[in-house]
Amino acid sequence: MKPVEIKNRFSIGDGKLAVIAGPCMAESLDVCLRTAEFLVKLCSELGVNYVFKASYDKANRTSAGSRRGPGIQEGLGFLRAVAERFNVPVITDVHESGDVPTVAQAVDMLQIPAFLCRQTDLLVAAGRTGLPVNIKKGQFMAPEDMKGAVEKVRSAGNDKVMLCERGTSFGYHNLVVDMRGLIAMRGLGVPVVFDATHSVQIPSGNGGCSGGRRDLVYPLAGAAAAVGIDALFCEVHPDPDNAFSDGPNSLDFELARRVITRTKAIHDLD
Predict the structure, then answer these.
(1) What are 169-176's contacts with CB under 8 Å, separation 24+?
(2) pTM above threshold 0.85
(3) SS3 at position 159
(4) Which of 33, 55, 119, 198 has its CA 20 to 30 A from that of 236?
(5) Are 80 and 106 spatial neighbours (Cβ–Cβ below 8 Å)?
């Protein structure tokens, strides 16, 4: 497996745990800065590499009336403010291939949402930037079938690819995590990421929005670390119950500390 270098700072997949975390949506500059400040301090204390994550646009909300985010210009401004204040790399989702060049100028990594993991034009456009690309495995995809997504990014001359497990659809309004998928995706020669908070999401489970079981994040993250991961992904918010997006499965600061601390402890046993 070839580690993925993040902006000459550190590599994901070199044996040291990385954390990719932040609010689901870049709701405001205040929320981004408060969350980043907490996570930068925590990850420094624990000795783990950190990437700040927030989305400028949530294009796949359950309801047309749900908040989507600040938009590309303002949202990318929030991300750059975090990067400059705390000297950390930043990552965001990108949904449209036409947005990729603009987004790539403002971030250090690109993330492909799970629903879009088979979109050839988007994957190739992301690959052409030369930035590391974190591809979330679709809820409908077998882990070994993510080989095609990896090859699409590599076809653009970019081998900085990671794959992220975020649960698989199991009937309606339910996700399960098959930990064997982490092993299968690492077998494709790429670092693997476990998305501990989206994996406990209940898609569309609250009528006009998704629900979630944040109480299950702690055991699932520990299980994934025991199987073997290179990075932990989680959504963290100062006040999850009032978050604009994915509140039910997001972590407050206290729970984030418990989850990340335990995940590192288990990861380091190997």
Answers:
(1) 169/139, 169/140, 169/203, 173/202, 173/203, 173/204, 173/205, 174/202, 174/203, 175/139, 175/199, 175/200, 175/201, 175/202, 175/203
(2) yes
(3) coil
(4) 119
(5) yes
Q: How far apart are CA 194 and CA 231, in angstroms?
A: 7
Q: What are phi and psi of 21, to 5 degrees?
A: -155, 155
Parallel/antiparallel/unpaired status of strands 161-165 and 192-195: parallel
Q: What does the pLDDT read at residue 66?
A: 54
Contact 132, 6 (CB under 8 A): yes
Cβ-based neighbour number of residue 11 at 10 Å: 19
List the structure tokens of 215. Answer: 């109480």
Residue 123 CA from chain centroid, whole number: 16
Structure tokens at 118: 């088979």
**Cα distance between residue 38 and residue 252, in whole Å:** 11
Instruction: Give the residue carrying structure tokens 């569309």.
Output: 204
Q: Which of 111, 123, 182, 178 is nearest to 150 (CA)?
A: 123
- The one-letter code for the residue type at 143 is P
- Are 208 and 234 in contact by the 8 Å Cβ rule? The answer is no
Which of 240, 211, 176, 196 minimizes the C-alpha distance to 21?
196
Other CB atoms within 10 A of residue 68 CB: 17
User: Is 80 exceeded by the pLDDT of residue 69?
Assistant: no
- CA pair distance 199, 177, nearest whole angstrom: 7
Write the pLDDT tens digit of every residue in 84-127. Answer: 999 999 999 999 999 999 999 999 999 999 999 999 999 999 99
Render pLDDT for 137-149 as a digit per residue (tens, 0 to 9).
999 999 999 999 9
